Amino acid sequence: xxxxxxAGALGCAAQLTTGCKHxxxxxxxxxxxxxxxxxxxxxxxSIYGFASPRTPASVGxxxxxxxxxxxxxxxxxxxxxxxxxxxxRSVGTGGPCASPNAPVVTFTSENGLPNSxxxxxxxxxxxxxxxxxxxxxATCLDGDAYETYHWVAE
Length: 154
Known about the structure:
The protein is an alpha+beta fold. It has one domain: Lipocalin (Beta Barrel), CATH 2.40.128. The N terminus is likely disordered.
């Protein structure tokens, strides 16, 4: 069973760093994929190693990420400000489980829903739905989170 879950986590990491078509593949220089429009990323779930996935239903609150082009991130719970922090995008500094060419976003992770501060990320567009994937720096080694969000335009 552990081998199956480890393979799944590695598959998720590989999907973030290989042949998938992401918005970052075609974005103009200087465009911020995470903050490129008015809206927010709505949390769908977090997977932590061998534990049961955490979802809004299982933890009792919704969670929103609002990336601003000025490098600020507002984290909200149930639509209310929870905390604010700076964020930085880079390439290849996501830790031992991310490809050297993986896009990475770094920000202070939330208490209660822990993850590495450095997270490999990917954005996919499929059937009119944009999805954000955040993969903790050491997901393949120590159970950091693999998180998914969907875009909500405002």
